[in-house]
Amino acid sequence: MTFGERLKELMEERDLTQRQLGKELNIAASTLNGYVNDNREPDFQTLIAFARYFQVSTDYLLGFSGAQNASLLPGAELTQRLLHYYNRLSPDFRLLLVNQAKLLVKHCQNAKAPDADR
Q1: Are 55 and 61 in contact (CB under 8 A)?
Q2: Are 61 and 6 in contact (CB under 8 A)?
Q3: Closest by alpha carbon to 54, among 2, 16, 98, 93?
Q4: Among 19-28, 53-62, 78-87, 108-117, where is mean pLDDT lowest?
Q5: What Cα–Cα distance (Å) separates residue 97 from each residue in 11, 16, 29, 93, 115?
Q6: pLDDT tens-digit series, residues 78-116
Q7: What are 37-46's pLDDT values in tens digits?
Q8: Residues in CB range of 70: below 8 A, 6 or more apart
């Protein structure tokens, strides 16, 4: 997979447009388009900015590794994705998400509890 393909995939996973990503990282639209279409390659600083933003390794972005971040523990990728979405929410919606998570945990605990009436 090329750098552009990986970048495009990461953007799709996070439902980001080129315009949004360019604005977030202060990259011109034409430059970002060049990266996505494999017509340009980022310099080291830009590569690091992409890695930090998407929370992946530079090895992954460059195609040297198939794992987005080999140092993460199993299941941590989903945690990182959840944290990414959490950080995009307003404070009110963050609280709502936390409350929903509490309800899900309680539901799972109740589902695992043995039925006292049996």
Answers
A1: no
A2: yes
A3: 16
A4: 108-117
A5: 23, 21, 33, 6, 29
A6: 777 787 788 888 989 989 999 999 999 889 888 876 655
A7: 999 999 999 9
A8: 57, 59
Domain locations along the chain = 3-62, 76-112
Cβ contacts of 64 within 8 Å, gap of 6 or more: none
Cα–Cα distance, 7 to 13 (Å, whole number): 10
- Which pTM was predicted? 0.58
The tokens 């495009």 sit on which residue? 8
Place of tokens 């995939």: 9
DSSP annotation of 43: -
Distance CA 105, CA 60 (A): 33
Please provide the CATH number assigned to the domain covering 3-62.
Answer: 1.10.260.40
**Which residue bears the tokens 């080999």?**
70
Question: What average pLDDT does this structure show over 31-55?
Answer: 94
